[in-house]
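Input record, target 12 of the design panel.
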């Protein structure tokens, strides 16, 4: 087994829509496991109200975990720190919790067997069974989503690269427009075309500019939101990520994989991430340009 793959960055469901879709997917997947494998000892198709109850248990449990935990523990669920191993453990935990609640429901409302609920031997047997099913299910879902995202982002990248190639063939007028940024309460005049991108680094922003074949980086005590506000009048600067502002005219090509979409600058030596919610804006910019 390639253990290094477990440390591969893996996108966490950051938006409401992504979390909702994940909750629905896992709930349906768990229901199919119950229907096909019947690991909990009853036939749901003949007890539809029990089946719906288990579906509800899964959705409530997942909603608490996917919405509540990231709210109270934001640093742990930070997307930049999220990996395949963390996603596997979190999914396995979710399946374990769903199975445990189903065990309680099964004992109290289906079999009317309270003794099996408090029996240590019975509970241990259930936990082992649930853990085994949860590990297999978590591994399957991670591989499925990993490959799905890789294909999706690769397709988007190929589409955008075709557009960039067309744009590079056009005879675009050179611009020497000067913009003024107030950084650390001091005005600074810069050529628009010299700014490659701006990144957030703690309490500072890093201004990455080109000087001939070189790229310089200067830190200023400002927030990226303050800089983005100053650049609103310059539509070629896109807040492509919560930590990055990129000059769209400096993009040369894109790259897509399971981790997301990236734009490449300065002969491909610089790679800047594009948030999934910003891909539409990048497409719109190219459509307006071409």
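The sequence produced for target 12 reads:
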């Amino acid at each position: 087994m390639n253990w290094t793959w477990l440390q591969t960055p893996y996108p966490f469901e950051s938006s409401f829509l992504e979390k909702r879709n994940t909750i629905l997917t896992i709930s349906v997947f768990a229901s199919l496991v119950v229907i096909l494998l019947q690991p909990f000892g009853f036939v749901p198709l003949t007890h539809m109200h029990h089946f719906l109850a288990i579906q509800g248990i899964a959705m409530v449990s997942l909603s608490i975990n996917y919405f509540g935990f990231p709210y109270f523990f934001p640093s742990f669920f930070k997307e930049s720190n999220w990996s395949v191993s963390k996603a596997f453990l979190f999914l396995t935990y979710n399946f374990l919790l769903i199975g445990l609640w189903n065990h309680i429901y099964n004992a109290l409302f289906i079999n009317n067997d309270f003794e099996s609920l408090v029996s240590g031997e019975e509970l241990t047997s259930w936990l082992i069974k649930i853990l085994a099913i949860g590990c297999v299910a978590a591994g399957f879902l991670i591989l499925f989503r990993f490959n799905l995202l890789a294909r999706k982002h690769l397709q988007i990248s190929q589409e955008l690269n075709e557009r960039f190639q067309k744009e590079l063939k056009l005879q675009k007028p050179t611009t020497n427009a000067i913009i003024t940024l107030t950084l650390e309460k001091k005005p600074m005049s810069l050529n628009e075309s010299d700014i490659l991108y701006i990144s957030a680094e703690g309490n500072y922003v890093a201004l990455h500019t080109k000087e001939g074949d070189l790229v310089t980086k200067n830190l200023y005590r400002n927030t990226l939101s303050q800089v983005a506000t100053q650049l609103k009048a310059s539509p070629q600067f896109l807040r492509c990520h919560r930590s990055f502002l990129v000059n769209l005219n400096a993009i040369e090509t894109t790259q897509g994989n399971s981790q997301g979409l990236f734009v490449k600058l300065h002969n491909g030596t610089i790679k800047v991430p594009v948030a999934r919610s910003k891909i539409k804006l990048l497409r719109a910019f190219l459509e307006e340009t071409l």
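Helices lie at 16-37, 48-72, 84-110, 114-118, 120-169, 224-230, 279-289.
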